[in-house]
Amino acid sequence: MLFYSMDRGISLGQLRKEGLLTDVVLVSEGEEIHAHKLILSLHSFYFRTLFQSCGFSESECDRINMSSLEHSILLCMIEYIYTGKLYLDPDLSMDLSDLETEDIILALLQAETFLQLNDDELRKELERHLLLSLNRSHNCPRTVLRMGQYASIFQLINLQEQVYKILDVQLAYFLQDSQCLEVLYSLEAQDIQSIISRPSLCVPCHSLLLDWIIEWAKRKLCKEENVINLLEYLQLDRKFIQKQTEKLNTWNNLASKIAFKHNLQRGCPKYCYLVEFKLNKSQVRNIEEFVDGGEKSNFYCFTLPDGNFNRISGLTSTASLAGTCNANYFRPITQGSYVHFYKDKLIILGGVEDSLKDSSTTNRHRKIRRDILEYDLRVKSWLPPIKKSFVPSKHYKRISLETMTAVLSKAFVIFRGQNSDNDDASYFIDSVNLNEDISKSEARVNFISNVPDWFCGACAVQYDSRNHLYVCSPTMFGRLELETVSWDKLPPPIGDLGDSRVWLCGVPGRIYLLTGKPQSGSPSLTNTIQAFDVDINRWRLICNTGLRFTPSSFALHSGQLFLSGWCPAKNNFVMTVQPDTGAVEELGSGVEGVMSTGIILHPNDVSSLF
Fold first, then answer.
1. Which of 3.30.70.2740, 2.120.10.80, 3.40.50.1000, 3.40.1160.10 is the CATH number of 271-609?
2. pLDDT per residue over 167-220, tens digit each?
């Protein structure tokens, strides 16, 4: 059998360019493209309908206005129809990290849809370029949401799934970014349902989703049934939802109409708890004295919830430390350091200077590290320190970092200052700008407010990601309104908390407190967890943990309270607590050594480190 084939696309394209036997002219932006009705009709349902239907005046015309498409984009599509090859104008850059080139891909998708080519292979190729652009953005919030809109409009399944996977992990951050919120408020009900119904969605607390839905409903003026359909996916108390939805002033008893989807199993299937760790069997009782003798430490990672404990050598290898060795930062985390994750970087704030080894100098009087350290997960290396960028706004002879809270690119720090041992200590709050593009003339650290005198002892601080800072000592609790810089004294926590430092975490509307280790009294006294409801200004006891321990971390993750600490019976341990029921689950224990304050990350954040 004789078989022979030839691709005649190039010949057909040349025929069009030479204007041979063309019978139609397409006009866009004042420029003409000569073509053949038959070839256009073979590949485009739009042209086939246009040329065959009697109801269109264009069916009898040899000149058609295509003003809805740019000339360069229309020319690309006509070339593709003739040759099966897609060429862009040589003057246009093909660097897909450029937003203008992303716009070209979008324009091509719009043209393919408008011309009704129904070409799955072309759409897959254009989708592939958008996926590459998304990957190169390193999960930039605005890029992710923009890609989500493209995927929804053009039904790009692979792109949509990739966006959903990013939102599973990053949605909580996006809900705390004002620019991202504007995009999220513009979504349709079906888009929001597709996001919040995913079992793998991980947000600290569903009250963030509730705030989003309420504001979205107010802006969209949507129907009651659409709001109810979305609220069914939330794991929140019905009374709490009722209290919040009353702000809509539109529907009565909305919460009573919700049929919650109780069978929807939610939660982060796997996450990591990253700490700096000193392997030392002679465990000291006070974890806050972490690696204070100057010993080099290693980073370890709890993979949860299975409880595996693995060393992360990449963070302390000679190659990764090359960027910081000139500053002698062989221990990135020291006593008092705070670890934050933002834009693919681990950011280390505070801690005491490595250079001071004098054992007669107490930790409180040792100098605070003034450089900010950054580990870039993309290049797997510590970056050169940001020199003298963490300098308190006030100057005291003796100054220490008491506590810190951070959300996205903003951190708030409580400092303690004294000029001598005989002076009363003064506490004040500074804000820290963690943006990369901060100008040289702009101060990275700025004074916010003095802490009122009615606070005494060690304080904890929590930023609600909106406009309030919550500050708590063992005997007092208050709120700072950032816009007016005014303080409100709030009801104190339940019971006698002793003198130990307390820990705070939370979301807008709900603040959680973990008490420090009971210093004395009955052995039955244990660390407790309480919750403060902002709307009713009231504390409630969540649980007694059943342990007397020194905490090292306290956070809200995927609707659960996560905490770590040390006690003689368990050594270092990690556990979770259900905020609604107080149920405690131990995820791992028995790890010997000294553990720093750590940070919760997702496996895709740290996969490059293993």
1. 2.120.10.80
2. 888 888 788 777 888 889 988 898 899 999 888 888 877 878 888 998 898 888
